[in-house]
Q: What sequence folds into this?
């Protein structure tokens, strides 16, 4: 390719070097005559001044050339993919048409470039690249899976070249896309080397201080770490050779991103992450001897080093659902350091490195996948065959189309089940939008709320303030979420109508000079055949029950409450049902007094939040008529108030009754010797606190305990939490 003023001398040298590597790979990567044709296209594009550098100042031809090398060398794609990448910038700039390229390079190249252009259009529509919706849509829009692989390679190339850029904002955006979009895709495709590189570079650009802190620490300890691995493995190596086993061993330091994740999860510094490296013993075993030889290695290692039974993982007997097989053990090595060892065979290691793709090679599993992740994993094995184009077509969109992706006018993406309607989409956006939906505009065409959506539709919801949910909407919506919201809105409307009916009834009572008496009204309802107060007022609101009939019955029954027949008396649970269904007037009316002996009142303490005397609480009427007492800060409180506000009642404590209440505490700390004993000793010394149960788990050097204690009020609870926090090694104590 000729040098023009568009290229610096350094860029020209780099392009030539990469081209030599490309053409040296194999004939199925580049063919004779390709170089001359590509040079002609580039010459035309540069002479016409149609090529532009990106926001980082990167030369597009340099980027395309280096991306092509990744595609051919590290991913293993063939000529169609490599040539497509080299022509990508020329097509984007308009310097070359797909028709020309199809004529000069063939239909395969033109097809891949068409897919790349579709992905580019997708980027202009949506900025929500970090969402799972975008990942799925990206795959759906790609006409050829090689397009996705090229996009991953392109992002790796960009990430390598922007380390010294001054455009920090653009650098962060690209790094975030790499972390949330391209690294997960690379992982699903078995491109683990590229995935780790994307994650490490993303961390470098997004959390620069953390990245270099970990890197410097690893450099400082590398010599000691390597020496320790050698001391640990030397006696094992001797024993395995003596047993006549064929194997090789790996000892590698984990990626910086992986270490950083452990630091975040465990709340420790680099020095606190004890499993900085992984040791693998990989056996070359025939299929019929795999398990036997793995357990033989296990026996040899545990005879030499003390094992930690809590940290043993047996995925030999029962492999993971994704086909992963391995035996993980943690042993106490020299200098009293815990070391994790993974024992597996060559076949198992291949599956561990390449996921389901390798599993298919060994098990002969055929198609029939129904999810995007399984489908993506299968592509990796297809790339290892000679005829990758044919197999790509076999995999392309083979997954069952059970989802649709639609855009809002602003370009946001939403994922809905296949068959979802405009009304489903409206409720997916917001309850208010759904309640007022009258239709939609799709592609400049007005459609009804019943219209089924298709992938790629750009949907503008039309609303009206006069619109309200109808009962038949339950037959229009298809999603559980929308159906629940329609039902909730219908119930709220019924409650409002019932309130209006109640006010109307009381007003007419006043006009007829009838005194309002709650017990008499309850007897009236029973007499008219209504057991639930809300049903009674709903019948009045709908006109199913005549108000004059109610007033006449009420007047006949009105007499002193003490003379009412037994069936006319209002039980406590009925009173609560009435009181919670309608807004309460006074600040004290209708409040449940906990521990007060109210006849007929059935209430229990909610298990989800375990209220204790002294907690701010409220009551919730269950479907069976009983009442559950919840803390005001219960994790379920917001949902209960939002969905079932009409079933919430006030509650207050009557005073101490000598009762004890169960409370669950979660204790997190370092897995130190004696920590459990210290915790139980503190509890046993407390006079009014009883330990009911304790559950302990230890993972990655962390102690995680769940305690259930019996105590009588919040003051004792706070004192206990304060004392537990003073135990050596305890990091945090929280109430569940």
A:
């Amino acid at each position: 390719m000729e040098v023009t003023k568009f290229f610096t001398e350094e860029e020209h040298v780099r392009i030539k070097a990469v081209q030599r590597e490309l053409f040296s790979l194999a004939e199925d990567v580049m063919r004779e005559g390709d170089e001359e044709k590509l040079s002609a296209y580039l010459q035309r594009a540069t002479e016409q001044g149609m090529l532009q550098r990106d926001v980082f100042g990167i030369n597009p031809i340099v980027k395309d050339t280096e991306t092509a090398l990744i595609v051919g060398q590290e991913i293993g794609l063939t000529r169609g993919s490599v040539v497509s990448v080299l022509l990508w910038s020329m097509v984007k700039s308009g310097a070359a048409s797909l028709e020309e390229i199809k004529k000069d390079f063939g239909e395969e190249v033109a097809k891949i470039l068409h897919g790349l252009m579709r992905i580019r259009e997708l980027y202009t529509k949506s900025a929500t690249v970090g969402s799972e919706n975008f990942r799925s849509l990206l795959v759906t829009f790609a006409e050829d899976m090689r397009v996705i692989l090229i996009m991953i390679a392109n992002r790796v190339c960009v990430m390598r070249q922007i380390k010294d850029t001054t455009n920090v904002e653009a650098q962060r955006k690209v790094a975030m896309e790499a972390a949330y979009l391209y690294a997960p895709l690379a992982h699903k495709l078995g491109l683990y080397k590229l995935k780790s590189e994307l994650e490490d570079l993303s961390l470098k650009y997004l959390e620069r201080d953390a990245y270099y802190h970990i890197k410097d620490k690893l450099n400082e300890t590398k010599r000691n770490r390597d020496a320790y691995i050698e001391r640990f493995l030397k006696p094992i190596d001797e024993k395995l050779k003596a047993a006549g086993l064929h194997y090789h061993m790996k000892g590698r330091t984990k990626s910086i991103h992986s270490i950083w994740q452990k630091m975040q999860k465990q709340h420790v510094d680099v020095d606190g992450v004890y499993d900085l490296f992984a040791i693998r013993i990989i056996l070359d075993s025939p299929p019929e001897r795999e398990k036997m030889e793995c357990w033989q290695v296990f026996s040899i290692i545990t005879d030499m080093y003390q094992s930690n039974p809590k940290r043993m993982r047996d995925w030999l007997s029962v492999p993971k659902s994704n086909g992963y097989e391995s035996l993980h053990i943690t042993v106490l090595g020299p200098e009293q350091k815990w070391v994790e060892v993974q024992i597996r065979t060559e076949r198992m290691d291949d599956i561990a490195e390449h996921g389901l793709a390798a599993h298919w090679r060994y098990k002969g599993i055929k198609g029939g996948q129904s999810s995007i992740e399984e489908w993506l994993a299968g592509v990796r094995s297809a790339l290892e065959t000679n005829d990758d184009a044919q197999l790509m077509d076999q995999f392309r969109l083979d997954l069952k189309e059970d989802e649709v992706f639609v855009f809002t006018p602003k370009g946001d993406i939403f994922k809905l089940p296949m068959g979802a309607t405009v009304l489903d989409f409206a409720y997916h956006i917001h309850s208010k939008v759904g309640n007022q939906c009258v239709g939609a505009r799709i592609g400049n065409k007005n459609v009804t709320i019943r219209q089924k959506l298709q992938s790629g539709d750009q949907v503008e919801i039309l609303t009206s303030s006069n619109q309200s949910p109808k009962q038949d909407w339950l037959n229009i919506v298809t999603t559980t979420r929308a159906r629940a919201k329609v039902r909730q809105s219908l119930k709220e409307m019924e409650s409002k109508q019932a309130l209006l009916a109640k006010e109307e009834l009381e007003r007419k009572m006043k006009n007829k000079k009838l005194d309002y008496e709650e017990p008499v009204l309850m007897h009236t309802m029973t007499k008219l055949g209504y057991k639930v107060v809300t049903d009674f007022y709903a019948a009045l609101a709908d006109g199913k029950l005549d108000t004059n009939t109610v007033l006449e019955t009420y007047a006949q029954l009105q007499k002193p409450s003490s003379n009412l027949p037994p069936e006319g008396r209002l039980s406590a649970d009925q009173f609560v049902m009435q009181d919670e269904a309608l807004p309460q007037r006074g600040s004290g009316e209708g409040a449940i007094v906990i521990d007060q002996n109210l006849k007929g009142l059935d209430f229990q303490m909610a298990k989800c939040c375990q209220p204790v005397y002294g907690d701010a609480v409220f009551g919730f009427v269950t479907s069976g008529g009983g009442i559950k007492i919840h803390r005001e800060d219960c994790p379920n409180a917001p949902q209960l108030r939002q969905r079932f506000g009409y079933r919430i009642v006030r509650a207050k404590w009557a005073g101490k009754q000598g009762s004890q209440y169960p409370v669950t505490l979660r204790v997190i700390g370092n897995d130190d010797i004696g920590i459990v004993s210290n915790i139980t000793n503190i509890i046993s010394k407390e006079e009014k606190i009883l330990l009911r149960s304790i559950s302990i788990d230890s993972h990655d050097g962390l102690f995680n305990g769940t305690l259930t204690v019996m105590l009588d009020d919040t003051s004792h609870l706070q004192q206990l939490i304060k004392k537990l926090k003073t135990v050596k090694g305890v990091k945090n104590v929280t109430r569940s």
